[in-house]
Hints:
The radius of gyration is 19 Å and the shape is globular. It has helices at residues 73-84, 97-102, 119-122, 148-151, 163-172, 183-191, 202-210, 239-251, 254-262, 264-267, and strands at 4-5, 11-16, 19-20, 25-26, 49-53, 89-94, 110-111, 126-127, 132-141, 155-159, 176-180, 197-201, 216-228, 231-232. It contains ten helices and 14 strands. The protein is α/β, with parallel strands linked by helices. The protein is 29% helix and 24% strand. It folds into two domains: 4-131 and 229-266, 3-Layer(aba) Sandwich (D-Maltodextrin-Binding Protein, domain 2), CATH 3.40.190; 134-226, Periplasmic binding protein-like II (D-Maltodextrin-Binding Protein, domain 2).
Amino acid sequence: MASVLSATGLALVSVLASGVAAEANDIGDCILSGEVGSIKLQPVNEGVLTVETALPNPGWWNGDTPEQITTGFEYCLAANVAHRAGLKEIRLVIASFPAMIANVNPGKDMAMATISITAERQKVMQFTAPYFNSDIGILVKKGTAVDAAAMKTFRVGVLQGSTGAKYVADEVKPAELREYPENPAILAALMAGQIDAAVNDTAILLGLASKSNGALEVVGQYSTGETYGSILPKDSPNKEAIDQAIEDMRKDGTLDKMASTYLSDIWGADPTKVPYLKP
């Protein structure tokens, strides 16, 4: 299964169903539920669900390359949407987070990368129904003392274009704010001592901390009431159907089951136990 680079510089990879069970599609190693054909989609590429994301994002997309990914909360959410639409294949489109937020790629059905739904973003792009709640966390080297006062003296790294970047600039107001295009660049800066803390969604940071061999820890978070949703292309005909699939997964327990299966073990921590700070 080869990776293909498109003219826009986005990596395209088709993730084909490994087989077809008697009554369901098998996509990756996902937990699938619901009735095949219960929703109707008009995919941009016939017969497949094309999904844009940014890597790495452990727990949400388990693998560092598209070829490695067979599980993860958002991957399997997409798999369930495809399954319920009677599609047997997911095509992954890899982009940077800023490019995803710019929503410049019309060749997708959905874009998911733990993207927060905000009123500002809703003015210029269309989101699905929310599928996850998340606040904003603080990641530091293990042993770093952190409180509200210390954060104002810190050099803080954030993801360019993220809600965390805006929140830190407007509310926390640290001594220095540095923006990075990708999470690996933030981690490299933190490990090199170029920043004192990284701020991003608590759910994302717990996943990154769990893969640091104990070098990093999430020591606090800010309450923002954020929810994640999928960005849809402009004038997508699929919003109602995808929203229905998400709401059905909420009602039948699929979202909760995916969270406990794909997120809890990777995080190695309960996000509700991370203490809250005031900015």
